[in-house]
Design brief:
CATH topology of the largest domain: Rossmann fold
Oligomer: single chain
CATH superfamily of the largest domain: Response regulator
Number of domains: 2
Shape: globular
Largest sheet: 7 strands, mixed
Strand content: 15-25%
Number of strands: 17
CATH architecture of the largest domain: 3-Layer(aba) Sandwich
Length: 355
């Protein structure tokens, strides 16, 4: 028996608590959602925000997705580091080996997500990330051979995300440089596949706005010059009104379409939410919606949950109205702008890049 067939059999056996039409087994026990995020280490603050956002969403839903009871298991994928490969693998395997598991939320960043997606994909388990924006996770991308097929050993998609892709962030940085009247620009790259891909996207969008892009920092040619660092997501602009700015796919809590979210989070956890809290919240909301619409027939339940994410629409959510495309991307496109004053980031607008 293959791994996926064995899991399906286990799911049927453990969740069958009654009989539906035609004698089919019906789900009459809680299903599980695994949440794998960095709860310790350098990314612990962001990871705990995303986890608590997911926890708040499940609590507000009364621990239910439609008529189905849902429990969550929260796991640390960092073990005190940025992320720990052994922890990521262990968390994903724990989820797929749990016959009651209906979905997996994680990871926060793209590199660990590349490690967990093949595991959840092979088992046909839905995975939703609140922070992994890498282009190669959903579409073919330069520098990432055979992407995204390399993350899909089952041959079917199982990954979606609630955060806009890195491509939109680079596009937004170039558009903002144009709005700040930059006529010349340079973009740095650390030589990694991500750095080269983001730099290429910035150059392309900047050129569309009439900005002359050079490989080195522009100087002494008149006009306003800008430099973009994709790794740090920092845009530095010279000219008569020089400044340092930041762009981020995660919208600041004060700029969210769901204006009551920050207050709800503060009341529940006694601290203000960081930018990742809303994306963890929405990842759980999206998962609960998909579970609730999958029906209660235990036969092929994981498959229906997984397939139901693609094309799913969310109206009036914390992140506004959006849908999940056929490749797992979100149509939510707001990119947060910050002005950097000393060591402080001052949240500005969060527009969508022009298409």
């Amino acid at each position: 028996m293959t791994g996926r067939l064995a899991l399906a059999a286990l799911l049927l056996a453990s969740l069958a608590g009654g009989c539906g039409i035609g004698g089919s087994a019906a789900i009459d026990a809680p299903v599980a959602v695994y949440v794998s995020l960095p709860l310790t280490g350098p990314r612990g603050v962001d990871g705990r925000d995303a986890a608590d956002g997911a926890r708040l969403a499940l609590e507000r839903a009364g621990g239910r997705a439609g008529s189905i009871s849902v429990r969550a298991t929260y796991l640390d994928d960092a073990r005190g580091r940025w992320w720990d490969p052994a922890a990521v693998g262990a968390n994903a395997r724990a989820a797929v080996q749990d016959s009651s598991a209906a979905a997996y939320i994680g990871e926060l960043d793209s590199e660990p997500t590349r490690g967990s997606v093949p595991i959840t994909n092979d088992a046909g388990l839905l995975q939703v990330s609140p922070g992994a924006g890498a282009v190669d996770l959903t579409t073919p991308a330069a520098g990432y051979p055979d992407s995204p097929d390399r993350y899909q050993p089952s041959g079917s998609r199982n990954f979606a995300r609630t955060v806009p892709s890195d491509q939109l962030v680079a596009e937004a940085a170039a558009e903002w440089a144009s709005e700040l009247r930059a006529t010349r620009a340079a973009v740095s790259s650390d030589g990694s596949a991500f750095g080269e891909l983001a730099a290429a996207e910035f150059r392309s969008t900047a050129a569309e706005h009439g900005i002359q892009v050079s490989p080195a920092a522009p100087a002494g040619q008149g006009g306003v010059a800008a430099v973009y660092d994709p790794a740090a997501e920092i845009l530095t602009v010279g000219g008569p009104s020089p400044g340092r700015y930041a762009v981020s796919a995660e919208v600041a809590a004060s700029r969210l379409p769901g204006r009551d979210f920050a207050g709800q989070f503060q009341q529940r956890f006694h601290r203000p939410p960081g930018p990742y809290a809303a994306y963890g919240y929405e990842a759980m909301e999206l998962v609960l919606q998909t579970i609730g619409r999958a029906g209660t027939d235990a036969s092929s339940f994981r498959d229906r949950v997984r397939n139901g994410i693609f094309g799913a629409r969310r109206d009036g959510s914390v992140l506004g109205s959006y849908s999940i495309t056929s490749n797992g991307d979100t149509t939510e496109c707001m990119i947060q702008r910050y002005r950097i004053v000393g060591t402080t980031r001052v949240a500005l607008a969060a527009p969508c890049p022009a298409r």
